[in-house]
Write a structure and sequence with these properties.
Helix content is 42%, strand content 5%. The chain has helices at 2-9, 37-47, 53-62, 66-69, 118-138, 159-172, 182-194, 199-206; strands at residues 77-78, 92-95, 112-115. It starts with a helix and ends in a 6-residue tail after the last helix.
């Protein structure tokens, strides 16, 4: 309808036929879910042997969106920080891109740099070591995209790849398979709120435009 409205405004079509169509009802959206603290601990334990372990830890620890995590590059990850600076700089990730068209984040406030807790730093270090082993194992087949989370040959992960592996982890944790990777972000927000973090701070960390 918007495309034809543009054409209509420029006298390329006589009428906007898209506005005459009754839109289908569509399916009911999947409600948001989040893990409890106990479920989160079980999930972290089950994820330790998975290729997605660092993905799960990072998502629970920072609330990063799944499309942001899949586009995260190693040159946007600082696992050392600068503890000797006048104002100590913690390890961090720069969430500047996503797999959205054009590579932009969802909103301007979604472009943010997030400090990393030690658990996330350790998981990412171990993940980088495993990725280096993958690279040696496949040799010339490796495709270097600089991605933190990639396939065994370095290629980007799509949403289905992540969803499938994540459900293996939730099943191993005894939580069933009815979960999605984005539930990690919902859990981050829920646990922060339950711990008394001000909603304005949660919105900032999650990259939300508004506290609503």
């Amino acid at each position: 309808a918007r495309a034809i409205r543009y054409a209509e405004a420029h006298d390329l079509v006589g009428r906007n036929v898209a506005t005459l169509v009754d839109n289908p009802t569509g399916q009911i959206g999947r409600p948001s879910r989040s893990f409890t603290l106990e479920q989160s601990l079980a999930l972290l334990a089950a994820a330790q042997e998975s290729r997605l372990n660092a993905y799960v830890v990072l998502s629970l620890a920072t609330g990063i969106r799944t499309e942001e995590a899949r586009e995260l590059h190693w040159d946007h990850v600082d696992l050392d920080g600068d503890p000797g600076a006048a104002r100590p700089v913690p390890p961090s990730v720069a969430v500047w891109r996503s797999v959205r068209e054009g590579g932009d984040t969802k909103t301007a406030k979604s472009r943010r740099t997030l400090a990393l807790p030690q658990a996330a730093v350790e998981a990412l270090r171990e993940h980088r070591k495993r990725q280096a082993e993958d690279r040696l194992a496949v040799g010339a087949l490796w495709q270097d995209h600089g991605l933190v989370f990639a396939s065994a040959i370095g290629t980007p992960l799509d949403a289905a790849n992540v969803r499938r592996e994540f459900r293996k982890i939730t099943e191993a944790a005894g939580l069933g398979v009815g979960w999605a990777p984005r539930d990690l972000r919902h859990t981050f927000v829920s646990l922060m709120s339950a711990d008394g973090v001000p909603i304005e701070e949660i919105a900032r960390l999650a990259g939300h435009n508004r506290t609503a």
